[in-house]
Structures are given as C-alpha cells and as structure tokens.
Design brief:
Helix content of chain B: over 70%
Number of domains of chain A: 1
Order of helices and strands of chain B: HHHHHHHHH
Number of helices of chain B: 9
Low-confidence stretches of chain A: none
Distance between the termini of chain A: 17 Å
Strand content of chain B: under 5%
Mean pLDDT of chain B: 91
Radius of gyration of chain B: 18 Å
Oligomer: heterodimer
Largest sheet of chain B: none
Shape of chain B: elongated
Shape of chain A: elongated
Distance between the termini of chain B: 28 Å
Chain lengths: 161, 166
C-alpha cells in the first residue's frame, strides 16, 4: 500500500500539484475544494433550513432544483479531493482523521439522498408534508456536514508529517 | 497603523489566542469554515433568486432565509477579528489580506444598497415577473465578491509565506 502511495506521490502530476511555485497548482486546487465545500454544504443547509421551517412561503417542491448545485459542489470536491490526495498520498493514506472525514461525507450524502427520496420522489410531486423523520434527517445532515468540515480542518493538524 | 497593531498585540484577547493556540486556532478555523458555508449557501440562494432563478417564488419569501446568512457572517466576523488581533502585523503584510477586506466591504455595501434602495421594489415585485436589472446586478456583485473573499481568504496561507501554508 505504501509503495502504491509513494508511486502516486512521485508521479509527475502529483509533483506538479504539490510543488509547482505557482498559485495555479496546490493553492488553486485547495481554493476550489473550499468553494465546493461552500456550495455542497451551503445548498444542503438551505434545504435543511427550509425543512426545519425557515422561509415557509418558499414552496418545498421548488427546492428540487437545489440538488443540482449540491451535486456540482460534491463532484468538484471529489475531483479536487482526489488531486489533493495524490499530491501527498503517502502521508494522507495513513492519516486517520482523513478517513473520519470521508465517513462523515459519506454519511451526510446518504442523509441528503434519503431526504430527496422522502420529499422529492419524482419530478412532479407537489409539496409533501414534512414529517418528524424528515426534520430529524435535516438536523442530522447539518451535524454530519459540520463533522466533515471539522475533520477536514483537523487534517492540517493531526498528522505525522 | 503600526502603533495600532502593536497595541492590538498587547490586548488580553490577542494574548489569549496566542496562548491557547493548540486547540483554539483549529476550533476557530473550523467555525470559520462552517460560517462561510452557511453564508455562501444562504446568500448564494438569495443571489440566485435575484438573478431570476426560482421564478414564481416571491423574492421576499426567499429573503426570509437571510438571518441565517447573517449568523454565518457573524460567526466569521467574530473568528476573523480574533484571527486578526492575534497577529495584526502578519495579516497587514500579507498580500491577500487587503483584497479580502476589500471584497468583504463590497459585499456589505452591496447588501446595504439592496436593503435601502431596492427593498420597496422587492415587496412590489409580482412573483411571476422576471427580476429587474438592478436585482440581477446586486445578485451578481454579491456572488462575485463573496467568491473574492473566499479566494483571498484561502490564499492568506500562500501569498504571505510562499506556499508553506495549510
């Protein structure tokens, strides 16, 4: 496993990302990762807030489009995340808090998908009632994203390198 | 400005942040990222409405979410001030700092402009109508300036110290 990680990190691409003295390499990729976070968590937060009763004049059915920016933010971060990982693969592969972060992200996405299935099962659903189950999912979603953000930040502090 | 920065460094708040760095700084950073996600999400949502998306939903209805953007902003203003006063000279000398401040000011003035000059128009706008150009400009300026804040905020770790950042 370590050999594979070193191989990734030694690749020309990884070396460019990690080491190129230009703002277009690591700094920009990290910035896009932050933007993606703002978008995926932000979109999820708006949906969760609405389900919890904020802005009641906004028909919930109209929020079905919020999944587009949500998935865009997620995929932006999946791609930039892979690139960031490769740049320091040997270190990140053994960083426990990194896997904690991935777990939080996975759980948050599962929660988002479950909310979608409950509230937007097909393209033409009129407003469905917000059950206690959905409200719980909304709160859970916020907590899980906060967990992902926390674990992500701690990656800069809890490591061996 | 130097005497002012020097004075900031001697305040008890500044000394506290510098003393408690091990847990406090990562905590403040985490809160700062959570705050920005809240701000970007809610304000971005409103800006999309201003740009004409989500037609049929009253702009004033979407605006009801805004207190939550302010919560995010308040979290970030608080943590941001603590960051700054802990090492004011370092921030002031960082090439990314003043652009970040500039974009925060632009975003704030833009929001105040909407509040004061376009508030009545917002209440009178029929939900099915397209948003007027003034709304679209405010929405676009908001999105661009918050992106600028985020970009230069992230770059603080890199501009100042030649890519040795986190």
């Amino acid at each position: 496993m370590l050999k594979l990680m070193w191989a990734l990190e030694d690749s020309a691409f990884a070396q460019w990302v990690a080491g190129a003295p230009t703002v277009w390499a690591y700094p920009s990729i990290l910035t896009f990762h932050t933007v993606g976070m703002g978008i995926v968590v932000g979109a999820s937060a708006v949906l969760d807030l609405r389900l919890l009763g904020v802005g009641p004049e906004v028909p919930i059915a109209r929020l079905r489009n919020i999944f587009r920016p949500l998935w865009f933010g997620f995929w932006l971060n999946a791609v930039t995340g892979v690139v960031l990982f490769i740049a320091h693969a040997a270190e990140k592969a053994f960083q426990e808090v990194f896997y904690v972060k991935l777990a939080f992200v996975a759980l948050a996405l599962v929660t988002v998908v479950r909310i979608r299935r409950e509230m937007f099962p097909d393209d033409t659903t009129p407003d469905r009632p917000v059950t206690t189950k959905v409200k719980t999912l909304a709160i859970l979603s916020l907590v899980l994203w906060a967990g992902a953000i926390t674990a992500g930040r701690l990656m800069a502090y809890i490591n061996l390198g | 400005m130097d005497p002012f920065y020097h004075w900031l460094e001697t305040t008890s708040l500044s000394l506290w942040v510098n003393r408690e760095t091990q847990w406090l700084w990562p905590t403040m950073e985490t809160l700062h990222f959570i705050g920005l996600s809240l701000l970007v999400g809610v304000a971005g949502f409103f800006d999309c409405r201003l740009l004409g998306m989500l037609r049929g939903v009253p702009v004033s209805a979407v605006k009801k979410f805004m207190p939550w953007a302010l919560v995010g902003f308040a979290i970030n203003m608080t943590t941001g001030i603590l960051f700054f006063i802990s090492q004011p000279k370092v921030y002031a000398a960082n090439a990314a700092w003043w652009p970040k401040v500039f974009f925060i000011v632009v975003a704030g003035l833009n929001a105040m402009f909407f509040e004061t000059a376009l508030g009545e128009k917002m209440l009178a706008l029929p939900p099915d109508a397209d948003t007027p150009l003034s709304f679209k400009i405010v929405g676009a300026v908001s999105l661009m300036s918050w992106f600028g804040v985020l970009y230069f905020g992230r770059m603080l770790a890199f501009f100042g110290t030649q890519f040795s950042g986190l």
